[in-house]
Amino acid sequence: MKELGVILDYKDSYITIDEIKLPVRKLKDLQTRQQRSAIIINATEPHSTAGATKRAVKILDAKYEVEDLPSIVKEQCNHLN
């Protein structure tokens, strides 16, 4: 939790994540599917994981194509024999 910047404040019933202060919800407020869905839909990703997610999406969305390696070596790698 320290690495992710999570602070649990039991005295004031708050959770702080990436300097965003959130009130702790009561368990009874999370009992229905509709209430849980609303929380998930409105949730934003913490700054601590946003960079890793952005990098993974960039890698997964990359267009991979076959390259002609012999011609690349011949044209761009004159120092190789």
Summarize this entry quickly:
By secondary structure, the chain is α+β, with helices and mostly antiparallel strands. The protein has three helices and three strands, in the order E-E-E-H-H-H.
SSE string: EEEHHH
Distance between the termini: 53 Å
Low-confidence stretches: none
Class based on secondary structure composition and strand pairing: alpha+beta
Write out key terms for the chains shown.
81 residues, alpha+beta, 3-stranded antiparallel sheet
Commentary on this structure:
It is a single chain. This protein is α+β, with helices and mostly antiparallel strands. The chain has one domain (6-63). 41% of the residues lie in helices and 15% in strands. It contains three helices and three strands. The chain has helices at 33-42, 47-61, 69-76, and strands at residues 6-9, 14-17, 20-23. The chain has a three-stranded antiparallel sheet with strand order 1-2-3, with no helix packed on it. A hairpin with a 4-residue loop joins strand 1 and strand 2 (14-17). The protein is elongated. The termini are far apart. The model has no long low-confidence stretch (mean pLDDT 85).
List the helices and strands and how they pair.
Blueprint: E1 6-9, E2 14-17, E3 20-23, H1 33-42, H2 47-61, H3 69-76
Antiparallel strand pairs: 1-2, 2-3
